[in-house]
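Re-running the complex after MR caught last week's input typo. The corrected sequence lines follow. Everything else is unchanged.
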Amino acid sequence: MTPRQRNTGLIATAVATVIFITPFLYIFFMAMKTKKEAALFLFSWPSEWHFWANLTEVIQARNYMLLLAYFNSTVITVGAVTMLIIFGAMVGYVLQRRQSGWNRVIYGLVLAGLIVPPAVVPTIWVLQGLGLFKTIHGMVLIQVAYGLAFSVLLYRSFIGTIPRDLDEAARIDGATPWQIFFRVILPLLKPVTVTLIVVQSIAIFNDFTNPLYYLPGKDNVTVQLTLFNFQTQFQSQFNLLFMNILLVTIPPLLVFIFFNRQIVAGMTAGGVKG
Amino acid sequence: MAVSTSSVVLKSVRKSFGAVDVIKGVDLTVAPGEFCVFVGPSGCGKSTLLRLISGLEEASSGVIEIGGRDVTHAEPSERGIAMVFQSYALYPHLSVRDNIGFGLSLAKLPKAEIAAKVGAAAEALQLTPLLDRKPKALSGGQRQRVAIGRAIVRDPKVFLFDEPLSNLDAALRAQMRIELTDLHRKLGATMIYVTHDQVEAMTMADKIVVLNGGQIEQVGSPMELYNAPVSPFVAGFIGSPKMNLYDGAAAGMTCKTYGIRPEHLRLTNDNARWTGTVRHVERLGADTVIYLQVPGLGDMVVRADGDANPAIGAYVGVSPLVGREFHYT
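Corrected-run output:
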């Protein structure tokens, strides 16, 4: 490494640190301040540290709404991601392996799912017709519907790199189609599965607009919606708002830190051959 | 071990993919315990025929019997067969132990029984020290043995091999040929083996089936095919170097095609049937392969003794051995 390369690298790292760490530090400092100090919106060291006070107040706000929100968001995220992985892999597998003239049409429709933006009001009509509006499982299905096209896309191209001989060897070994899928194919899809777990669970956990539209009701609150607790027309408690932001940011951040290596591996895994 | 009693019988089997006929009516009987090799150039349908027997493809018409039972429409797992693929098709996420035991675990056998069978197969194939490795940590020959182990534990009536040695280097291939022949002798099972390599066919087979364009060209023991090929196609396919084949009229015969094997030509100076210019000489040690340019005929390959070493561009005379010429009308 030449000195020039090293210096460029150091500068790039420094710039990236400022861009990505500064907002986070701002949130952190704001979350520690008193209500009055927070209302000044200064990027400053807190004059008094109110970590525990703010934390307990945020958690206890509106009868422990944040804990309920954590529970709801976790149920939605785990349920939706599980279904996205299983169904995405199944659809991708059939689309890639079965010889049929319909495959092009079906694949075209799947891609249309990436292109066409979802419409809110008709979706609510459908949900009401099915009796799924304002229910957690309705929300899970919405997230699956919105994310499925992307998972099918990733899985299908990756399955193309798995030799068909493996399916046939398993068939000769006496495996049923379900066993071939669950015992041979699905374990081999791990790189894509990890990518999808990270990308989709962060997106679904952090989703604000969809729960806002499709999941109204006090008992159905998700983590992003708890931010409204401290922001009203006449009065806002920014120290608590930022403490709340801090708390809901931590889970996705942890997922991302642990899995970020695999994300890149999975994104490029299917790229060689499609 | 008990000698297999399972024959494989094909009765006017046909297979088409859309409008393309790949197998155009094949009748064949593979006797119990026989080592039968399908050979032919690529695209002749030999792999398709094997896949029809395995049940991975379903025949368009005709009957397939294994061990006297009609299995034409049976699932692969119900046919009592095991198959070794060209790519080995080992499950990359499973250890060698789990790869070999995969079929048994699907059949829900007790764990102890699976362990015993896998252990025995691994012992027979010298895989015991490798049982806990993943396939990617194995060499080509070891992977091949795992694939064979996976076939053995299922205790099949018929083994099917789809070009199993073509991904190995030459030395390993020669060794695996011997191991497979030994295995056949030890197990006594019926084996059907697909290859495009006539050396494998000649050295391993009890019976060779030569396929051409989706039909059987000739069936017979290796020496029958060598000594009495029924057509120029079989004549050209069996034997190495390839038989010299000429248009009958050009060779001064009344037949349509005239053939003479390189090893049945002798370099001679008096009364030579043909004379030609030496174009190229390959000295293999035990023999020398001489490529001649014969006026009126074209290229001619002669297999001579190892110490023969004609100069490039020299004129030499050649004559065929009596009784070794082939005339096809």
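None of the earlier attempt is carried over here. Residues 64-269 of chain A form a domain with the MetI-like fold fold (CATH 1.10.3720.10). Chain A has one domain: 64-269.
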